[in-house]
């Protein structure tokens, strides 16, 4: 009887570890995916801002066009963000 209880406890622990690993993995994966996704959006906005600047558009208009702050656009245009 004691051995059966030990096995049940061990099985429960193993199941708990597996579930914890799956949950942790998925959380980490989703966080990494979202960070990467948001970075790619910001990179696209920066590229657009640089193109618009090359066409003579002001930092204020660029900020409005790409939906970021004027300060961020100015940093991009001056190269301070690198």
Features:
85% helix, 82 residues, mainly alpha
Describe the structure.
With 82 residues, this protein is mainly alpha-helical. It has one domain (2-78). It is built from three helices and no strands. α1 (2-54) runs antiparallel to α2 and α2 crosses α3 (70-78). The radius of gyration is 25 Å and the shape is rod-shaped. The relative contact order is 0.07. The mean pLDDT is 92.
Question: Quick gist of this model?
Answer:
With 82 residues, the chain is mainly alpha-helical.
Number of domains: 1
**Morphology call:** rod-shaped
Radius of gyration: 25 Å
Ends apart, CA distance between termini = 66 Å
- Strand fraction equals under 5%
Mean pLDDT over all positions: 92
Q: Supply the number of helical segments.
A: 3
List the helices and strands and how they pair.
Elements: H1 2-54, H2 59-66, H3 70-78
Helix pairs in contact: 1-2, 2-3
């Amino acid at each position: 009887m004691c051995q059966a209880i030990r096995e049940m406890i061990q099985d429960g622990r193993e199941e708990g570890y597996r579930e914890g690993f799956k949950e942790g993995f998925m959380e980490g994966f989703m966080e990494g995916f979202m960070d990467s996704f948001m970075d790619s959006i910001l990179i696209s906005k920066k590229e657009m801002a640089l193109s618009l600047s090359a066409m003579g558009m002001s930092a204020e208009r660029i900020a409005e066009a790409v939906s970021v702050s004027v300060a961020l656009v100015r940093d991009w245009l001056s190269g301070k963000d690198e």
